[in-house]
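User: I'm writing a short report section on ligand binding and want a predicted complex to refer to. Could you take this sequence and iron/sulfur cluster and write out the structure as tokens? A short remark afterwards would be nice.
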Amino acid sequence: MRIAVASGKGGTGKTTVSSSLVSIWDLPVIAMDLDVEEPNLHLFLNPEFTGRRTARMEIPEVDQSLCNLCGKCSELCQFKAISLMGKVLMTFPEMCHGCGGCIAICPEKALTPASRELGEISWGHKGDTEFLMGRLRIGEAMSPPLMRQVKERLSEMQETSSTTETPKDVIIDAPPGVPCPAINAVMDSDVIVLVTEPTPFGVYDMKLAHEAFTPMNKPMGVVVNRAGLGNSEIYEYCKAKNLDILAEIPYDRQIAEAYANGIIISESSDKMKQIFTELAEKIKQKAVGNNAGEVSRG
Ligand code: SF4
Ligand code: SF4
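Assistant: Sure. The structure tokens for the complex follow:
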């Protein structure tokens, strides 16, 4: 089972929820941080890292002495990453998506594969919980190819022999918002958990996320963080859209202090452990197609 923890915007408590779910989830489980632009799940889980690899992507390299300036590569490239400018063929590696089309089409074999660094993939464990994350190189804009490689590493980790025969569940800390990386992060999940807060900004951005993820036709539910703050609009929206509120995390000074100290919220008190244990159960029910129902807000 794969659970994607997403949010319409940053700062709603997505990583707080991810780390807390990981903490109470039944083993075997893999915690995966796919928020590759700003990964911070490791700051809460504090895993012991056991492996790293550099993520690279293929880009074309031009041998100008072989190029006859026919322009076929330039016409093919949808991203303007290779372009004929007068009598010079220019490449723009930062815009290249690594499709390899230009290399394949070049009649003169003037293009050959080179590579550039995207970032780093690292993995390890916290106790019996396995951990995996990607981190984009500073200044790099191409998240999806790195995320693809993180998922490839996940497949390797899932294939390695486990202490049990039970398949490893995966809890994904997805990027915030609804750009391409966020869609990429949730597309393989079995359940999407949307974390929001009952403020006008939280409601507005959660609506965008809900609309963006709805076409995927996956079970979805909402966690309201900082419940008690703001207004009731989020509850009205969820009711109108038949969107289950799976849990509410109260707006509470003690929780804020735990967060500020990097403490996993579900480990901060018995009450929070109970909230996340019930949340985990509702997520599992959603994954098997049962309706988890709405929690009481009374
Ligand atoms: S397709 Fe090959 S020969 Fe034609 S412009 Fe591109 S690199 Fe040069
Ligand atoms: S590999 Fe694909 S995206 Fe990159 S320059 Fe060639 S055609 Fe364009």
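A remark for your report: Residues 290-298 have pLDDT under 50 and may be disordered. The CA atoms of residues 73 and 117 lie 23 Å apart.
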